[in-house]
Amino acid sequence: MTHKLSPFASGFALCCALLAAPPLALAAPENEDMAEAATEPITPLLPFQELTADTLFLLLLGEIAGSRGDLEVSVEAYLHAARQTRDPRVARRATEIALVARDMESATSAARIWQETDPASEDARRTLAGILAARGDQMNEVQIELARILANSQDEQLEQNLLGLNRALAPMPDKALAREIIERLVEPYLNKAPAHLALAQAAATDDDPVGALGAVERALELRPGWDAAVVLKSQLLVQMNAIDEALLLLRGHLAQHPESRSVSIAHARTLVSARDYEAALAEFRRLLAANPDDRDLMYAVALVAAEIGAFEIATEHFRQALEARHPEADAIRMNLGRIAEDSERPGEALDWYYEVGAGGYHTDAQIRIAHILANNGAPSAALRHLQDAAAEADPDDVRRLLLAEVLLLREAERYDAALERIEQVLVHTPEDTELLYESAMLAERVDRLELMEQRLRALIELDPDHAHAYNALGYTLADRGLRLEEAEGLIRHALELAPDDPFILDSLGWVRFRRDAPEEALHHLEEAYALRPDPEIAAHLGEVLWSLGRHDEAGEIWDAALERDPANRVLGETLERLRGW
Fold first, then answer.
1. How far apart are the C-alpha atoms of 330 and 348, rounded to whole Å?
2. Which strand (E) or helix (H) includes residue 248?
């Protein structure tokens, strides 16, 4: 995906600003009053810049290259200009472009120039700290920069800066270390509620909801009824599966502060967590009526309405959110496409999916398009669509598109073609465990048992704890009456890895039946069927009952399975063999 920066005009505007900047000329203060005033925060005076041809060229090169997606050239040009001019505006722009390009080395250099040339700028210090935190090194400097921001903050600023600590350290991969840094930074401010809220956020990020709850309780002691603390406490309670307690907290707060919008939204979201979708929808609609231009509320109403099948309401509000330019436009188009699919309007669904642009939902949209084409009499077009999409996709998306293609081939019972497609990709990614497993299952369908075993043993070597690889190999051997002792050993090992898996219990029952232990087989199969009344488990359970002369019980189980899944292959083959139909 190509990143687009600001157009040519942005570079021209910056050049004009440099020409207009006053010269940097700070005279020494003439008396103590002036000296005192000089220590107060002021808007920094900008250096006079002579806009040389070289500087102009670098700025324009940076902007034009950025607008064309050539971020490497743009970063290099702007960083060179920042070093040459020592102007905080140029350094800030260089930092922004380097971050877009994910060039952390250049971003660090540019942010240092920005901070050095505008030492009073909290933005510069915060950005530098965030970059260093993302890199995971020089953590002492990160802490020093954030401590300076806090120390130089006025009361109102201090609250915002305390609450911004977690955001500044969010890029850090080591969440425990980030929490330690925040604990040290807030130590001088523990008499203030925001310090404890910052501690609560850090603990929550560090997967310590109990510690977070303790910190947020202290914040509420220092500032009773604080909306932000109430919302965070409710989120922690939901995370700890105390949803009723969270609802009680939020309703109690709203009884005293009915105007609290953030708590009302938290209440509606908690109703969703409680799966009380009707109440959540009513709450979100009430909030939207009070804030009719709020596109996030439009989106929330649509999502909850779609969840309960109120497609007319969902469609109306998804469309409103699109018209309001909601940032999740492609997610909205995907939802509208699924609603059209569920409402059996495939043409409309295709229109929505074709509108999904490049980004996180693009591959999902291409898979849905192929699914609709295949289900509407155009399987060849569906396969071509997936192959065309894969030709332009990133490697991770290519893999997803491949699996979608294999699924379509399998659903069309073109097992040889599906296996051939998987094998083509495995040549390049022989250690992809998911593809190895899929290849083995397809090889079994076309009776290439040697290839199936090769794939499963390769998978087991790569992932010794892959329970379903052991189970698949053991079941296939048992089903064909081959190496039954070895088959049982494989299945029992799979069961050790996944003790309550109904499919592995089914395999164990089946191999015991194959080894002439029907009573023991019956026990395992009944346990598997109780966990999951799957048609294949029903086929095996019914066959064991049939072998024991309990034909009526077998028939009841088969009939129930047939009603749920009349097209199941294993069930059909079992009934044909034993009942003759």
1. 15
2. helix 243-256
DSSP 27: P
Angle at which helix 277-290 crosses helix 261-273, to 10 degrees, equals: 160
Q: Two tokens at 269?
A: 């979201």
Residue 505 lies in a domain: yes
Judge whether 443 lies within some domain.
Answer: no
Domain ranges, residue 559 = 497-581
Q: Into how many domains does the chain fold?
A: 1
Give yes or no for a contact between 332 and 318, defined as CB atoms under 8 angstroms apart: yes
Confidence at residue 20, expressed as pLDDT on a 0 to 100 scale: 41
Cα separation, 392 vs 167, whole angstroms: 35
Give the span between the Cα atoms of 74 and 342, in whole angstroms.
47
Chain position carrying tokens 């050993």: 489
Which long-range contacts link 107-114 to residues 24+ away (Cβ below 8 Å)?
A: 107/131, 108/132, 108/135, 109/79, 109/83, 110/78, 110/79, 110/82, 113/82, 113/83, 113/86, 113/88, 114/82, 114/88
Cβ count near 388 (within 10 Å): 12
Domain of residue 577, CATH code:
1.25.40.10
- The answer to whether position 452 is within a domain reads no
What would the two tokens of residue 298 be?
């439009």
Mean pLDDT over each residue of the chain, to the nearest integer: 88
Average pLDDT rounded to a whole number, residues 540-554: 95
H helix intervals, 39-103: 53-67, 71-85, 88-100
Rounded CA separation 76/496 (Å): 57
CA distance 556 to 219: 62
> Does 396 reside within a domain?
no
Average pLDDT of the residues in 124-142? 76
Evaluate if residue 5 carries a pLDDT over 80. no
